[in-house]
Amino acid sequence: MNAPFVPLLSDVRLVDLADPGEIARLEGFVARHPLGTPFHRPAWFVSVAAATDNKALALVQERGGEIVAFLPLDAVHSPVFGRILASTGFAVGGGLLATDYADPDAVFAAVEELALRLSCPSIELRGGVLPAEGASSNAGWALKTESHAGFARPLAADDEAQLTSIPRKQRAEVRRSLGIDLTIEVGTSERDRAAHYAVFCESYRNLGTPVFPRALLDSVVDGFGADTDILTVRHEDKPVASVISVYHQGAVMPYWGGGTWDARRLRANDRMYYELMLHARRRGASVFDFGRSKTQSGAYHFKRNWGFEPEPLTYATWTQPGAAKRDADPTSGKLSLQIKVWQRLPLSVANRLGPLIARGIG
Q1: Residue 288 phi/psi, 5° resolution?
Q2: CB atoms within 10 A of CB 160
Q3: Which of 127-131, 189-193, 297-301 holds the top average pLDDT?
Q4: Do 87 and 168 belong together in one domain?
Q5: Which residue intervals define the domain BioF2-like acetyltransferase in the entry (predicted)?
Q6: Are 206 and 236 contained in the same domain?
Q7: Nearest by Cα to 259 from 286, 232, 227, 281
Q8: Residues 254-308: pLDDT tens digits?
Q9: Which of 2, 12, 5 is nearest to 118 (CA)?
Q10: DSSP code of residue 129
Q11: Which residues contact 354 (CB under 8 A, 6 or more apart)?
């Protein structure tokens, strides 16, 4: 179902994302807003929707012809997980960006109306300005706190300072990796992309997670252009660890990364993140944003081992009255069993089936 480009409520409207001028306005608003993230950019939410056969949408609120609030959205459909409006899809951030002149409640009401139009029984806002839980104007919304945490810290002034800033135990692992015959490559060529995806597929199968289609990763690399790169660690010319990073407002965010079975014994993941810290500083970044992890998960503790302190994240969810709540939590009993089954699949089978499932996870 295609949503028409007409006002939803008073001064809240859907943006025509086929209009380059509107795309430029949104990019400019995100660039100027102090809470803008890579996931608010059309380079993200429009690109990932196209690559996964989902639908990108954008709500804006205007005053005197100027944008005062912006909510990027991906309408994601999955035969496994159902339909959802996510801000934003395949991301760990997003949510409503607002100025002092905005009326957030009007935007929340508009996104509820839009969800009903699109037969999406669920909405998830991943950060940004959130509805006030329990307020009569925000009935149906619930806040989810403490389930995930973000990790970010400033980069050090030079290579040696970066190494010594890492806690002792993890620093020892990095030092060991420096003594192993590993090579580092950075770029966005076909060689870089193919190496990354080969590593990424194996890593996701080992985690029990359906792998994203390569088109999704390529779409972000293409959409962000100079604001992204791929760093790959090779051993005897074979890629063993690789990560796609995006750059935004002085921060580098390693986003899609992973390693092969050999990566652990070669300490390739340790080398990868240390080399990315050095590379990011050289290209002008001042902050290393390690992204989010589920609280108390293995990734959560891995990031703490690097000296990053967790910052609890809060998300908002809305469920249509009478509809069942969407379950895409990998720790739930139902999905944890599916994860164990997936981990046992041959890599070739996981690589064929994974993209068909993952395009609907959102």
Answers
A1: -105, 110
A2: 9
A3: 189-193
A4: no
A5: 168-304
A6: yes
A7: 232
A8: 999 999 999 999 999 999 999 999 999 999 999 999 988 888 888 899 999 999 9
A9: 2
A10: B
A11: 201, 204, 205, 209, 210, 211, 212
> Is position 309 within any domain?
no
Q: How far is CA 337 from CA 263, 285, 361, in A?
A: 26, 41, 17
Full domain range(s) for residue 275? 156-285
Q: Average pLDDT for residues 83-109, to the nearest whole number?
A: 92
Q: Does residue 237 surpass a pLDDT of 90?
A: yes
Report how far residue 126's alpha carbon sits from residue 90's, in angstroms, rounded to the nearest whole number.
11
- pLDDT surpasses 70 at 331: no
Q: Classify strands 66-78 and 55-63 as parallel, antiparallel or unpaired.
A: antiparallel
pLDDT at 252: 97
- Give yes or no: residues 193 and 219 share one domain: yes
Judge whether 234 lies within some domain: yes
By the 10 Å C-beta count (0-12 exposed, 13-18 middle, 19+ buried), 305 is classed as middle
Dist CA 224 CA 59 (whole Å): 22
Residue 306 resides in a domain: no
Picking from 36, 41, 11, 38, the residue whose alpha carbon sits closest to that of residue 25 is 41
Q: Is the previous residue joined to 209 through a cis bond, with omega within 30 degrees of 0? A: no
Number of residues that make up the chain: 362
* Residue % of the chain over a pLDDT of 70: 85
The answer on 193 and 124 residing in a single domain is no
Q: How far apart are CA 236 and CA 16, in angstroms?
A: 49
3-state secondary structure labels for all residues of 313-353: EEEEEEECCCCCCCCCCCCCHHHHHHHHHHHCCCHHHHHHH
Same domain, 124 and 216: no
Q: Does 52 share its domain with 103?
A: yes
3-state secondary structure of 58: strand
63 has which bridge partners?
A: 66
Residues 129 and 191 reside in one and the same domain: no
What CATH number corresponds to the domain at position 167? 3.40.630.30
Token digits for 318?
A: 């809305």
Whether residue 39 is predicted with pLDDT greater than 60 in this model: the reply is yes
Q: Is residue 357 part of a domain?
A: no
| Number of compact structural domains in the chain | 2
Question: Do 141 and 160 reside in the same domain of the chain?
Answer: no
